[in-house]
Amino acid sequence: MRKEFKFPDVGEGIVEGEIVRWLVGEGEVVTEDQPLVEVETDKAVVTLPSPQAGKVLKCHFGEGDLVRVGEVLVTYGNAEEATSLAPKQGALGGSVVGRLPEADEEPESQIGLRVGPGGTVRAIPSVRVLAKELGVDLSKVKGTGPNGRINRRDVERAAERIVPKNTPVMQIVPESVAHGPLERVALRGMRRSSARHVAESAARVAAVTFMNEADISDLEKVRHKEKKIVEEKGSRLTYLPFIVRAVVAGLKVHPYLNATLDEEAEEIILKKYYHIGIAVDTSDGLMVFVLRNADQKSILELAQEISTMSQRAEQRKIELAELKGGSFTITNYGVIGGTYGTPIINYPEVAILGMGKVSEKPVIRDGAIVARKIIPLSLTFDHRVITGAEAARFMNDVIRHLEDPDLMLIEGK
Questions:
Q1: Which tens digit of pLDDT belongs to each residue from 377-405?
Q2: Domains in the chain, please, with CATH?
Q3: Is 398 exposed, middle or buried (0-12, 13-18, 19+ CB in 10 A)?
Q4: Contacts of 126 (CB under 8 A, 6+ apart)
Q5: Cβ(49)–Cβ(61) under 8 Å?
Q6: What residues act catalytically?
Q7: Which backbone phi and psi does 401 adopt, to 5 degrees?
Q8: Would the CA dihedral through 214, 218, 224, 230 be positive or negative?
Q9: Could you give the C-alpha distances from 226 to 217, 232, 233, 360, 403, in angstroms and in order?
Q10: For the whole model, what pTM was predicted?
Q11: In degrees to the nearest 10, what's the CA dihedral of 339, 305, 250, 392?
């Protein structure tokens, strides 16, 4: 008896994913909980295990295809069943983790479009509707999906090559010829998630950026003294753990920066925990992991966790839960040479602190010009929740802790 495994609801508001790699093949007999396929969601790469033992009759999506929650990933059957099975889309649903309904047989007419002696063009109904809307003849489109199935992107690409009727010849110059060569890159995975997220933040937040700088010359001495101890434990002691501690100290005095705004209820939700998000640049795009209960961790513990989480983020081995629940975010663009910036708030948070590049600058101390280690800081805040004066006071407290590292070593853990 055939059964279907549909792409499950993995939580965190994720509705679709991209097939990265199949770990099994059609015709292979698998055991329950055996790794089945790697899927890249907006947040991370997750490995889906097989919900049952059986023979894989059909993998319904190819690597690089997008699959939505509720669509059929795999059809199982008994070992003696044939491995040839027409691809079929499952019905969309809500939480379908572990759902294995019996597969209904679907007539060929529902999954393919007969076009004459040339054979069958495979396209699901929604793709056929799109083709009709865009004026695309499916019989002339080469499908890139499983078994030659035509997907939405195939139709969209074909539509780009169609010349409207009665268009003057002088207007039919391809853009790549008129201006230069082009390359189209699919907006997928984290880059698409980040694009949507920053667009939402820009649309919903009244963002203002306040800038200042801190003299961390004394902090540098402490860091230099302690970094060998940290390195012996397999981590690196950067400025970031100290920034985290200074930010937590500031948030405790200025709780409105550690908050979210419930617009419907017209309430400001002050968070009594300090989960600090750290934005990191990975080869796949921007990712923000969360240091939970940062106020309860020492500088050494923060350094170790930041190092470990950064490596896992780059390797895409981080868990979804480790990317959620932040109350305030820090982004360090100084590592690539930036000074000041206007970082975008990690919505629905209400503030974010940007770190610039640390450099030596001439400053006046006791009437003399001396060289000091200076770090530029940029604080973007939601002006609906936080006033400019409050943002400035918060920044002053952060700077005070950075310029007097004894405060961070005395306060808290």
A1: 999 999 999 999 999 999 999 999 999 98
A2: 3-106 (2.40.50.100), 109-179 (4.10.320.10), 190-410 (3.30.559.10)
A3: buried
A4: 152
A5: no
A6: 383
A7: -75, -35
A8: negative
A9: 15, 10, 12, 21, 17
A10: 0.67
A11: 20
